[in-house]
């Protein structure tokens, strides 16, 4: 793989050693130029003229088709969103849940999604159960079997929703989403499966998981190296058919031209019912450009292999440091490498110390640890510099 060109296009990688791809990926110059060109085109056509609408429709439709292709679903099952949270929450709150139903949420979910579930449970008098996956730190095959067993033990006759990330944002463990979806389809209630894909899209293969989940929400600004403010959510056919729109705007409507107080069929009968209103169209050109740059650098499998090779190298080097303990017992199956430094200093202090040297990682609260992410643009020199700095700490 030739990743030097992509690295050279990212200003954020020129003056620092960057390991925060799981927080936000660097935006290549080509993508920024695509955004600017799109914005200029809209202004030249006129931001609200008859001439601009065909251009906007083309941008929206081409972006929807591309993201749907990435997720292995037809375009009518792909809604455009602003971020992972909106992609999770908008369809979640429209699910046909009733009082007394139970939600099963893993103990490694992001606070934004957990809080939305807690508030939904409060409003609709639902119960919440916890799916224990935080302790899974071993080989992938063992993890997959343990997840299926844990779900089997924690499901109840009233469970109607399971919430489980594809890649756990704190430990980096990959979850067997397709197997879980198959398992839930055999449950009498056939619980819905909501997947936070913030750490998977643009990094690992997502087609099988996205096609199997009921709600598979992702963003373009992390591993896909696109602009912040644009993402998507792949929805199952039954969510499209059974879930009601929640936050409603003109993009949700079949006919946005007039208000009809007597109509009972206001909304699109596809994923667009979960889109709201005006969004930033130029961002679409930027995300498509970033995805193309990643594809030019190598196939999806090649990129994933490189990411795992780099994360394994980092994990192994950290494993050899006396005062450092990686969270995972084996080399990661993704680019997330979480670890703890034994001592009295809080993780945030280590982040600041490393940042002062131009090395950027992040700290996490639960479990309390540090996290460094490798991408295809990471180099062996980057890893060596980080390991040397941590060793000096």
What features would you describe in this structure?
The protein is an alpha/beta fold. The protein has 2 domains: 4-28 and 299-392, Aspartate Aminotransferase, domain 1 (Alpha-Beta Complex); 43-290, Aspartate Aminotransferase, domain 2. 40% of the residues lie in helices and 15% in strands. It has 13 helices and 13 strands. The protein has a 7-stranded mixed beta sheet, sandwiched between helices. A 4-stranded antiparallel beta sheet has the order 9-10-13-12. β12 (362-365) and β13 (368-373) form a beta hairpin. α2 runs antiparallel to α10 (282-297), α3 (52-71) packs parallel to α10 and α4 (84-92) runs parallel beside α5 (111-124). The longest helix is centred in the N-terminal third of the chain and has 20 residues, at 52-71. It is globular.
């Amino acid at each position: 793989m030739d990743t030097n060109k992509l690295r050279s296009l990212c200003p954020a990688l020129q003056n620092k050693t960057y390991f925060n791809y799981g927080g936000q990926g660097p935006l290549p110059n080509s993508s920024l130029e695509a955004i600017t060109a799109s914005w200029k085109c809209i202004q030249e056509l006129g931001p609200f003229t008859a001439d601009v609408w065909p251009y906007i429709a083309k941008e929206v439709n081409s972006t929807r088709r591309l993201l749907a292709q990435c997720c292995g679903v037809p375009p009518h099952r792909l809604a455009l969103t602003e971020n992972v949270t909106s992609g999770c929450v908008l369809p979640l709150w429209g699910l046909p849940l009733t009082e007394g139903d139970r939600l099963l949420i893993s103990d490694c979910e992001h606070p934004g999604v957990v809080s939305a579930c807690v508030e939904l449970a409060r409003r609709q008098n639902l119960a919440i159960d916890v799916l224990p996956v935080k302790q899974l730190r071993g080989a992938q095959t063992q993890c997959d079997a343990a997840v299926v067993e844990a779900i089997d033990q924690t499901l109840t006759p009233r469970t109607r929703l399971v919430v489980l990330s594809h890649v756990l944002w704190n430990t980096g463990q990959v979850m067997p989403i397709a197997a879980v979806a198959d398992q839930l389809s055999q449950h009498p209630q056939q619980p819905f499966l909501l997947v936070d894909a913030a750490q998977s899209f643009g990094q690992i293969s997502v087609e099988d998981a996205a096609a199997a989940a009921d709600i598979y929400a992702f963003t373009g600004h992390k591993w896909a190296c696109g602009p912040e403010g644009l993402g998507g959510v792949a929805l199952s056919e039954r969510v499209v058919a059974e879930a009601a729109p929640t936050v409603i705007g003109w993009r949700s409507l079949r006919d946005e031209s007039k208000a009809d107080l007597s109509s009972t069929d206001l909304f699109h009968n596809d994923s667009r019912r979960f889109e709201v209103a005006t969004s930033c169209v130029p961002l679409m050109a930027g995300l498509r450009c970033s995805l193309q740059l990643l594809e030019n650098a190598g196939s999806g499998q090649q990129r994933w292999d490189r990411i795992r090779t780099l994360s394994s190298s980092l994990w192994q080097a950290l494993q050899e440091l006396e005062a450092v303990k990686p969270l995972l017992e084996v080399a990661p199956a993704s680019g997330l490498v979480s670890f703890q430094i034994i001592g009295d200093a809080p993780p945030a202090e280590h982040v600041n110390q490393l940042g002062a040297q131009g090395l950027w990682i992040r700290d996490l609260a639960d479990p309390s640890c540090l996290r460094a992410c490798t991408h295809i643009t990471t180099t062996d020199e980057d890893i060596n510099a980080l390991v040397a700095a941590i060793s000096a700490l």
